[in-house]
Amino acid sequence: MSAASPEPKLTDPAADEARVTLRPLSFRGRAFKALALTPEPPVGDWLAGLDKTLKRSPTLFKGRALILDLAELQPSLDDLRGLLDELRGRNICVLGIEGSDTSGEGLPPLLIDGHPSAKVALPVLPAEPEPLMVTSITVEGSVRSGQSIVNPTGDVTVMGHVSSGAEVLAGGSIHVYGALRGRAIAGAARNPRARIYCRKFEPELLGIDRLVRTAEDMGPALRGKAAQVWLDGGTMKLAKLD
To answer: What residues does the Septum formation inhibitor MinC C-terminal domain cover (predicted)?
Structure first.
């Protein structure tokens, strides 16, 4: 004699639905430091300059969020795909594109109104933009090789040295009271009036706003001397600091 089968358990869909607790969706914004690459025609020469920079500083873009600014280049769709392939071949991953209407399947998204942001506001609940807090930071000692000092909203002052393989990035100006042997990028917040000052000029790479120069482009005239760097009419200037 076989055992009786258990009776099927009946469920009430309405009761099950009542037991489900619905939680409201939560939206939070996150701000990441992004570097903008601005290719210029002819692209072949620009890529050659990029290769030269990467040879000097192979970790320059490591772990960086990169935006491709196409305002000066304005490529066709095919040319843009070719440029992105060239960048991927150099292990450079582009997260977004700005300054162009070129779009297509498989391309990074088009970005507009890029600026530092603390949170994301939904269209139905517009929020007042938060004021940009300008701050300055001081490093009491030296910046060792492999270290990165970042202050996207103000100046950075280093009381000691910036070693080879180290990096200082500032939204404003950079002041180094010792030797500058690593990378220094000032004006990262689109500030062409930012400057770089150091007591001993031996940098691997310098940048102000969107202009970058490597050690090979600077010549030996200022090496080991106190110097300042600034922009004048879209050209990077270097001079002895008296």
So the answer is: 139-237
